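#lab-general

N.A. 3:47 PM
ok so I finally got the sequence cleaned up, no stray characters, all 393 residues accounted for. can someone with queue access submit it? mine expired

B.Y. 3:52 PM
send it over

N.A. 3:53 PM
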Amino acid sequence: MSRALLAAGFAETFGNAPERAVYACAPGRTELAGNHTDHEGGHVIAAAVDRSVELVCERTEGCEAQVVSKGYDPFTIRLDTLEPQAAERATTASLVRGACHVAAQQGGTVGGFKAYITSSVAVGSGLSSSAAFELAVTSALSVLFDAEELPALDRARAAQAIEHDYFGKPCGLMDQAASALGSIQHMDFSRSDRPHAELLDFDFSEAGYAICLVHVGTSHADLVDAYAAIPREMQQVARVLGASRLGELAPETIISHAAEIRRATSDRALLRALHYVREERLVAERAEALRARDMAAFLELTRFSGASSAMYLQNISPSVEEQSAMIALALAEEFLGADGACRIHGGGFGGTIQAFVPLMRVEDFSRAMDAVFGASSCEAYSIEHEGAYAQWM
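B.Y. 4:20 PM
back already:
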């Protein structure tokens, strides 16, 4: 959306045109490699996409935040305290309060404000609307309240802390880092205090492929516990072997202690640890394939990754009865054959699958997916090279 349209939406909502206002934009992200490896100190490949959260905000008298997100119920919160509030857990209000806390920590003078927000990152689309929202609001309020500007990865870590401490979801750092940095990034999370990111210069469209995401219609609203169980079980395995995260252990250590791990944890925990071992190797190999511009190798490795998520990580479907994502994967594999690849996308448990589709077949692929999952369930995305930012209008 253009800034002029955002300003018009602000004026219509609040009854006055913004005078001294801040504009912010943060892209959604797609995970290209590394399914549930980031929270274990592993590696991922992620990219920002051409869908974003945008907002306009300006200061007001008092200590209230008035927030209107187009298409959602407006809300107002008092900012007398910037500490997490139990009553706001798992709400958008918690993210706004957390962003205010970040600005205050960085020396900003936090006070009242009003914000008008729009998003083309659909909730439940698998593009991490929450991370885009966190980065957009955190970036905007840091500028609005004259806080010290944080480097991109530090802003990502601050946004992750908001989701942990305020919203209550124990996410990894990949989503926020991808939104903050932009482009395609090969990320190393072995040092939680200082993750490393390397730009990968690759153009999927030049290689003849589109990145398609198919939203299969499964809601994530009640799946926080299912997501949380994955890092919890992986870290149970790590503790059996004297570590806190799987990334601290050599792959052969995990494999050679499989019997001990089964006795101390569960079969599913062991399988998820074995997925981590396999996926770490596949991330490294896919990064090399992209550096070498070897699309055929990238596709083959992506198929292996998709199989590992289904069989070992087991994050495809939220229940035995609900199998939407598995149906989507089966149909996509039948359609693409050896010409493409598909896998569960992001956190999993329904939601969205990712497919790498030859450009000449995108229209037919989208039509086939839409016929099963509804109009516009399948969309093609481009890489966004600019990460989250904010500036005075």
